[in-house]
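Closing statement on the NAP sub-project.
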Amino acid sequence: MRVVITGATGFIGRALCRALHKDYEVIALSRDSNRAAKSVGNWAKVVEWDGRTTGSWIQQADGAFAIINLAGENVASGRWNKAKKAGILHSRMDTSRAVLDAIKQTNKKPKVVIQASAIGYYGSRGIERLDENSTAGKGFLADVCRNSETIANQIESLGARCVIIRTGVVLGNGGGALPRIIQPFRFFLGGHIGSGRQWFSWISLEDEVAAIKFLMENENLQGVFNLTAPKPITMKRFCRKLGWVIRRPSWLFFPGFIMRLALGEMAGEVLLSGQRVKPKRLLEAGFEFKHIEVKKALKDIKSQKKKS
Ligand SMILES: NC(=O)c1ccc[n+]([C@@H]2O[C@H](COP(=O)([O-])OP(=O)(O)OC[C@H]3O[C@@H](n4cnc5c(N)ncnc54)[C@H](OP(=O)(O)O)[C@@H]3O)[C@@H](O)[C@H]2O)c1
């Protein structure tokens, strides 16, 4: 059975290719096939696309068991200027539309399409407890998520099951937010950002990948799922636990206004605000998290790094 993954060369995509390749024929769609071959060539057949239009890659979508759309310009890599914001938004809308158009043109529709979204959908919500029934929030990231979800919602009418994953902050080695959070700790400059009271809804990379596989393989599941660990934590407590695991102090704090000066709007939406999210539908569906406590997740990530 064929699984087509867009954004397969990314942090989550690489781990997913690796996890699926024994049971599935994995096709990695990438804008740069040479780079992709080096990154995921051991676990997937690489096929080039432009991330915007349909093309010969439709042959891969035709009759596929699943299409998993993870592509999109990285949200947390630097200051958001006008061009960066346009890139973040349009990369997600263009790739989602290209997937939708490809499905329209297939003779045999894929059984399931999984569309990446994020808990940024909920905006900045303080201490409010959020689940999949919560309303959308305000802000740039909420708009980005809502736009790509709206496109993905049209997939059901084409006859394929559609699952939208609202992912929290993914913790693992080799990418995502953790290496950037850890960096100052290594120089004994660890600490939280802003008040530290903002909620941090995280998920381990292992659970993220397992949850995507679970949702892909369970044909009764469709619609929106929060991919976050059942126990979110405040930023301040997260930094303390991180410091404990890597044996470095978490004693500083980086005032919000400095972060805003340095990183602009990105700091406000990504670093200084948070969401307290529960993975209600995943738990109801019987998904078993490997990592419920963040300390255990961080310890496992540390020991995996030592082994690699
Ligand atoms: N990591 C997290 O903590 C997290 C949290 C919430 C949501 N998510 C979402 O989950 C998805 C995967 O996350 P990730 O961390 O694996 O992302 P990532 O490491 O930034 O990788 C995303 C991939 O998307 C492709 N891409 C980048 N810019 C693109 C563009 N302009 N047009 C088309 N494709 C483009 C790239 O593949 P090629 O260069 O090979 O084409 C890249 O490898 C993203 O949509 C992200 O927003 C991630």
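The two ends are 30 Å apart (CA to CA). With this model delivered, the sub-project is considered complete and its resources will be redirected to Aim 3.
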